[in-house]
Amino acid sequence: MNKTALTAASEDIIPLDPKDSIAEGGERWVFRHPDYSHILIKMLKRRKTEMFNRWWIFGHLSQRFLPASRYRSTAKQYDEYRRLVMENLFDPGFELPVAHLYGFVKTSLGYGCLTERITDETGRTAPNLQQRIEAGTFTEADRKGLNRFVARLYDISICAADMGPANFVHGYRGASRPGSNRVPQWVLVDGFGDRYAITARSYSRRIRLRGMDSRFRKGKKVRGLRWCSDKRQFEFADDDRPAT
Fold it and tell me: If you ran DSSP here, which 8-state letter would residue 241 be given?
């Protein structure tokens, strides 16, 4: 390969630095795409074998001896995205309740996952449910809208992995694309997919619904909001109910 070809190949790699990420979790960094404002790059962190040598539990044992299982959550998320699309392939009115996944891109940190970016009215990355509640901007109308969205997730029996408040975002989709729908809506941006080794939930609606009940019940709690299992909806705690 000549020098010109090498230069062109290097320019195809998006340079990323962890200190420039807009969000960080235990498994990933999240970056703005440098060229497309409606897309994020989610970069998996490299997880070395020695990270799983401390505890003799199934999760650590499987990730110690089966390295591919360290990245199961990402693979299963794509599987669930594909399931939802294929089950509604010929329904032009169906709107995916989860963030769109666009494949992968080469970066200086390895291959990154391209995903839809949800924005607020100013074009900035929209805050998640947890951030809205902590900022005091979550209203009774928002709660009702969120519960309608939750009911929709139950209706399509999404494969739930983490229904914590950080994964629910309310904002605009495709904000920078011509003809985009400028109506804000709730979107599940993460926490979906069957991460279990025995993938029964992928084939059984009944098991998926039971899994959703469990994930909502065990999800991270945020002051002022509580999950009511019998109603399958969120309610305000009495001492934190906002004015209507």
Answer: P
